[in-house]
Amino acid sequence: MTRCLVTGATGYIGGRLVPELLKAGHDVRCMARSAGRLRDQAWIGRVEVAEADAADPRATRAALEGVDVAYYLIHGMAAGQGFAERDRRAAETFAAAAEDAGVRRIVYLGGLTPRDPRSPGSRPSPHMRSRAEVERVFLDRAVPAVAYRASMIIGSGSVSFEMLRHLTERLPVMTTPRWVGTRTQPIAIRDVLRYLVKAVDIPEGVNRSFDIGGPSVLTYAGMMRGYAAVAGLPARLIIPVPLLTPKLSSLWIGLVTPLPVNVARPLVESLRDEAICREHDIARYVPDPPEGLIDFPGAVRLALQRIKEADVATRWSSASTAGAPSDPLPTDPDWAGGSLYVDERTEAVDAPPETLWRVIEGIGGENGWYSLPVAWYLRGLLDRVAGGVGLRRGRRDPARLRVGDALDFWRVEEIEPGRLLRLRAEMLLPGLAWLELTCRREDGETVYGQRAIFHPRGLSGHLYWWGLYPFHGLIFGRMPDNVARAARRYADRERQVKFSAAKGS
Which of 368, 353, 347, 362 is nearest to 450 (CA)? Predict the structure, then answer.
């Protein structure tokens, strides 16, 4: 049995790798900045959890104690000054801690670049250069490393797939940038996970990078047409326009897809250059499966099936949005951090508590927010125009939530099934905001509780709260009554089903 450490376990790849390693019989420890983010995972009882930031040498060294193989799946996706330096320093800290702890191998998942990013004439995007730099950090250290280089990863909920899916489904006729003609070699998430798991068995001493990709080499336009064919959509008309810069492209993608601009920008920049495998040496250590690697149509088909069955284990939004607030909710009314604004409301509900909870846990996404949809839409649109996440992230699951889930422009900070749902705002705000929804039994009645909390930062924060105060009655004031009505409808429907069943028997 091999003891494996998985960093980035709250993210898209890491959250799927953990159960695959467990299935293969390995002992798994997860490293996360916030251990609480993992507590609702189905596999949490079968793993160890170490709370550490990769930039913290002492905590990282402790997390790596006794580990044989360490998976480094930490990436800074969003743009911003200094991200490359932060990523490099975190990788150096991790590599040094792994060496000190006696780790046998580091496994890193990076990106395919057109050529050596340090060579003359090379022009990979800043994020692709950063991936290559992190790869070089690991390959140059004493602990042997296996560095996989992948292009677009196609799987339900992956950032590349969601961008492709929404662009294709929403725009039957598209004027597109020149990068739609760039060739790439997409790979199915199942094949990526297979390579990652099998890295444990690669002979000791192997210290190199491997290009990994599926059997299909396509342009982005070809992928959009291929997606449309698999999804049963009419053929898409694609008209390349050379004037769209990466910045304009990312703004356009931010309006059309659920991806915020700061996530779309690095994706667009990476699509300017070909990302095709130059070798398939990995097959010497991890042979292709008998049925072959999954081709692009097959990967799309599998992803759409997962979405249809609402069986999406992780999504691109599983990882916290860079720059989003992370401060915990201040629980002390006299919190020393500063003034708090609170909008608190309750409503008696003519329905069982479990029915009310079903409405609370199902809030957001396609179900909406039970008050003035146009106001929520405009707030989401304003957030997206400003570069935020907006409302389009939706939900991972239509009925169930877990700690760490993205929920439109909120993130689930706490959930106590049947009792409490606390959401932390990830929209752009001059302060920190939370929304608490509760369900309780009081004097024989089911009671819905709602609390909106705002901690302003600076004068702009105070002006923001009082500027929106007249709208609170329209937004938060209508929610309790509408939630109560929805719960009553659920209860009436359940009573009718039980009555019909009893009558039929």
Answer: 347
Which letter does DSSP use for residue 284 in this model?
Answer: G
DSSP 8-state assignment for residue 201: G
Res 243: pLDDT: 63
pLDDT digits (tens, 9 = 90+) for 53-86: 988 999 999 999 999 999 999 876 554 567 788 8
Residues 6+ apart with CB under 8 A from 407: 363, 364, 365, 393, 394, 395, 401, 423
Of 13, 79, 10, nearest in space to 411 by CA: 10
Report yes or no on whether pTM surpasses 0.70: yes
Alpha carbon distance 252, 244 (integer Å): 9
Query: Which residue's entry shows tokens 């959890």?
Result: 49
* Weakest-pLDDT range from 50-54, 163-167, 305-309: 305-309
Least confident piece of the model among 76-85, 410-419, 472-481: 76-85
Q: Determine contact, residues 440/419, Cβ cutoff 8 Å.
A: yes
The H or E element that residue 346 is part of is strand 341-349
Other CB atoms within 10 A of residue 366 CB: 8
